[in-house]
Specification:
The protein has helices spanning 21-35, 42-49, 53-60, 63-85, 91-107, 125-130, 138-159, 162-165, 172-193, 196-210; strands spanning 10-13, 16-19. The protein contains ten helices and two strands.
């Protein structure tokens, strides 16, 4: 018997085929995350979502359009989580919680969407797509920039609060630029070493540089 999570999500209503767009884009995101942009085909997306390839073309037009919509959902969820993690009253604790979330999100496998253990995804979706030259046209580059700029906005907002300003060793914008770049470098280090404890230790060192005791 086919597991429920593998069942097609197309349903019939008044003779018209429809599908759950939220679930479709969620599953599509996991395919791009696992396989990368270039290696993902419309047939891969059809198989993972349970939606016929022709229906995907009719609904979205092409692979890039599906990716952009899926990535927009990923961005919204990621940035909301980042802001939630930076609510600690102490600015250093807020940034430490931020790094704990970022490191966990790149280190811990994301549960698969199709009951296949090998389909687990890990790492940073943004960086994975950014290092895929075949994906980097203007539309995708704009989406990735939007993600990083959204992350910078969240960090700069927290660093501009009076409690952080009183202790920062750099202006908020400069500190933000350093933090965003640092998170991208952490992605590479995680992929090579798979050592979240080391990443957190390095993040703690950076915080000691950025904040006065």
């Amino acid at each position: 018997m086919t597991p429920l999570s593998r069942m097609p999500i197309i349903r019939s209503m008044a003779g018209i085929k429809q599908f759950d767009e939220e679930e479709t884009l969620e599953r599509a995101m996991h395919v791009f995350w696992r396989r990368g942009y270039a290696s993902t085909s419309m047939q891969d997306l059809a198989q993972a979502t349970g939606v016929l390839r022709g229906s995907l073309y009719n609904a979205y037009g092409d692979k890039q359009s599906i990716f952009l919509l899926a990535f927009a959902r990923y961005k919204q969820r990621y940035l909301a989580a980042v802001r939630e993690r930076m609510k600690a009253a102490d600015p250093v604790d807020a940034l430490r919680d931020f790094f704990a979330y970022v490191i966990a999100s790149m280190s811990e496998p994301v549960p698969p969407r199709d009951d296949t253990p090998s389909s687990s995804t890990r790492g940073c979706l943004t960086t994975k797509i950014a290092t895929d030259e075949t994906a980097m046209d203007d539309a995708v580059r704009h989406a990735l920039r939007g993600m990083l700029e959204g992350l910078a906005d969240a960090l700069e907002e927290r660093l501009s609060a009076p409690d952080a300003l009183a202790r920062l060793t750099l202006p908020p914008k400069d500190a933000t630029r350093l933090l965003v770049t640092f998170t991208r470098g952490n992605v590479v280090m995680e992929r090579i070493y798979h050592a979240p404890e080391e990443l957190q230790a390095t993040a703690d060192t950076l915080l000691k540089i950025l904040f006065k005791p």
